[in-house]
Amino acid sequence: MWYHRDLHWLQLGRLIHQEKITLGGNQSLKIYGTLSCYSGKRMKNANRVFFADEAEAIRNGYRPCAHCRRAAYLNWKLIAGSK
C-alpha cells in the first residue's frame, strides 16, 4: 500500500504506468475503487492510498466502492450482512 502524501507526482505516474498501482482508496472511509472513479477523484490527497490489486486492498481492511466496483460491493454487502 502506498500513501499519496508520500509519493511525488512523477513517482506516482511511473507506478501507475508500470501497473504497480491499479486501485485507489480512501484511508478514512476504508473504501477502494478504480483510479478513474469520480468519487475517488474527489477525496483529499491526505486520505488517498493506492494498492497493487484488489487482494491487497481487502487484506488491509478496505471494502469495494459502491460506484465503480458495483458487483464487488454488492457481494461484499451480502457477505457483511450475513455476519
TrEMBL record:
Molecular function GO terms recorded: DNA binding; methyltransferase activity; zinc ion binding
Family annotation (Pfam families): Ada_Zn_binding (PF02805)
GO BP terms, alphabetized: DNA repair; regulation of DNA-templated transcription
Keywords tagged on the record: Activator
Domain Ada DNA repair metal-binding: 25-69
Cell inner membrane keyword on record: no
UniProt cross-references to InterPro entries, sorted A to Z: Ada-like_dom_sf, Ada_DNA_repair_Zn-bd
Name assigned to this protein: Metal binding domain of Ada
Higher taxonomy: Bacteria, Pseudomonadati, Bacteroidota, Chitinophagia, Chitinophagales
